[in-house]
Amino acid sequence: MTWLSIIISGIVTYFSRMAMVALIDREMLGTKVKEVLNYVPAAVFPAIIFPGVFFNDFGLFVEITDPKIYGAIIALIVGFFSRSVIATILSGLSSYWFIVFVI
Amino acid sequence: MLSKSKIFFKGTVAVLPHMLSVIPFGIITGAIGVELGFDPILVYATSLIIFGGASQIIFMQLLSGGASSLVAITSVGVINSRHLLYGAVLSEYLEKLSFIKKLFISYFIVDQGFAESNKYIKQNKNLSNPHYYVLGTGVTLWFCWQLSTISGIILGSFIPEELGLKFAIPLTFLAIIVNDLRKLDHVFVMLVSGFASLMLFDAPFKSYIILSPIVALIAAFIMLRLKK
Q1: A89: chain B residues, CB-CB within 8 Å
Q2: Do A89 and B178 touch (CB under 8 A)?
């Protein structure tokens, strides 16, 4: 049963990747839709970021003093000024570990 | 003019910084699967067949928690429906390809690869073979993902919990959008999506992962209307 659900999940996932690329004609999308699609990264990624920072493993709000919140703030500041992927991730992780292991 | 292999290589290089988060994420995914009691072969099969970190973790968590297959599959579909939006953006760059090539390249469309490809192709509009860039990002991420999940399956429970490697997941997605942090309209859409995800987090089937972007895109649409 698990094999079957992995395969069906795989098909569903592949379809989500392939549908707009191979099946649907882009001409069907108007300029307004394309304008809105510019905001796709801004609309998708925070929905992964916010719960990852503000919730714990049980889906409950972390305390305001949680190291994840400090790590995220530092990563945000470093990311804003450096615009670098690697600096953003490293600053976030290292400040998080600094708070957890040193302080 | 850049050769095909050079464009592919540029894609590879562009996603290398993301390995900092992709590799720990892959290791965690493999380790969690084994910890939840799944056969290592099944855990690896999710990397090969589903090939999507967040959805693999949620899929295994739900099944081990006694959820029905239907619930697990629906959740995977909801989480991965964000690819529809990526595909809609990428289709502009891929429309000249044959149907078979489109089917092939689609398998490699992932978050970080999409973000880097979209950024690069927008800045280099005259690129003759943009799909090689997409492939460069996707194939590189694919190999790293397969290897890191296998490592996670082998390492299993040796990784100390205190390291908090899960925190690398939100950081990597934050790193993806740092370029847009100076654009107020984008920041507005990000905040709508973020707050929506916190409020909708308990919606069934983890549907917050698609509901929040929809709310944010509606906000973007209204914002564009008001601007005019």
Answers
A1: 17, 20-21, 168, 171-172, 175
A2: no
Contacts of B187 in chain A (CB under 8 A): 42
Q: Report CB contact under 8 Å: B106, A21.
A: yes
Domains: count for chain B: 2
User: What's the mean pLDDT in A65-89?
Assistant: 93
Per the CB < 8 Å rule, is A21 touching B213?
no
Q: The tokens 């809609």 sit on which residue?
A: B88
Percent of chain A whose pLDDT exceeds 90 = 58
Question: With the CA atoms of B92, B95, B100 and B104 taken in that order, what torsion angle do they form, in degrees rounded to the nearest 10?
Answer: -20
pTM score, two decimals? Answer: 0.78
Classify residue B34: in a domain, yes or no: yes
Q: Containing domain of residue B214, as a range?
A: 179-228
| Mean pLDDT to the nearest integer, A48-58 | 90
Instruction: Give Cα separations from B207 to A51, B78, B102 (angstroms).
Output: 13, 6, 28
Shared-domain flag, residues B188 and B139: no
d(CA B124, CA B103): 24
Name B123's Cβ contacts closer than 8 Å, sequence gap at least 6: none
- Give every residue of chain B whose pLDDT is below 70, as ranges: 1, 157
Specify if B131 maps to a domain: yes
Helix axes A67-82, A46-54, angle to 10 degrees: 140
ipTM value, please give it.
0.87
